[in-house]
Design a protein that fits this description.
single chain, alpha/beta, 6-stranded mixed beta sheet
Length: about 180
């Protein structure tokens, strides 16, 4: 069976079992690193919500959760323009912040979010991404925790989407290149 998303063929990249095992390992690492810390976990919407939900259940500490939502326009406005759609409501001053994102590629979005969070004076700031793409970054960023490093492929599933389709898939698929 060939799965199609938005009319495009896909190929299985990471199974739900592989993802679950890695998310559990990340939860253990984060739990160890944040013992005796005042942890606030910030999820990036929309893509990061499924990863965040699974990860937070693996972190065996008292945590507070909040969300940030940004938009990067590519049609109708200048490419790469990033806009803050929904800001963090939790006070971050003096607290340890872990940003949870679905995937990192160019680094532009993560850099924008980092500057937004650091303006709120947290005690510390780290990032956790399920997927880190192997590509040249446009912005120098650090990903402190990551689940998987993949080639520069367009992916869908487990929160990531293609034209808002496929977020609900339990596995992660690579979108196959169109012929021609």
């Amino acid at each position: 069976m060939i799965l199609q998303v938005s009319g495009r063929k896909t190929k299985l990249l990471l199974s739900s079992d592989e993802i679950s095992k890695r998310v559990s390992q990340l939860g253990i690492e984060i739990t160890q690193d944040y013992i005796d810390k005042d942890l606030v976990v910030i999820g990036v919407l929309k893509g990061g919500f499924i990863f965040l939900a699974d990860l937070i259940r693996q972190i065996k500490l008292k945590t507070e959760i909040d969300f940030i939502r940004i938009s990067s326009y590519k049609e109708g406005t200048k490419a790469g323009e990033i806009e803050l759609v929904a800001n963090i409501e939790t006070s971050l001053k003096g607290r340890d912040v872990l940003l949870v994102e679905d995937l990192i590629d160019t680094g532009g979005t993560l850099d924008f979010i980092k500057r937004t969070i650091l303006s709120k004076n947290p005690a510390s700031y780290k990032t956790c991404a399920l997927i880190k793409k192997q590509k040249r970054r446009e912005v120098d960023i650090t990903v402190d925790y990551f689940g998987f490093e993949i080639n520069d492929k367009f992916i869908v599933g487990y929160g990531t989407d293609l034209a808002e389709e496929g977020r609900n898939l339990p596995d992660i698929f690579a979108i196959e290149k169109e012929d021609g």
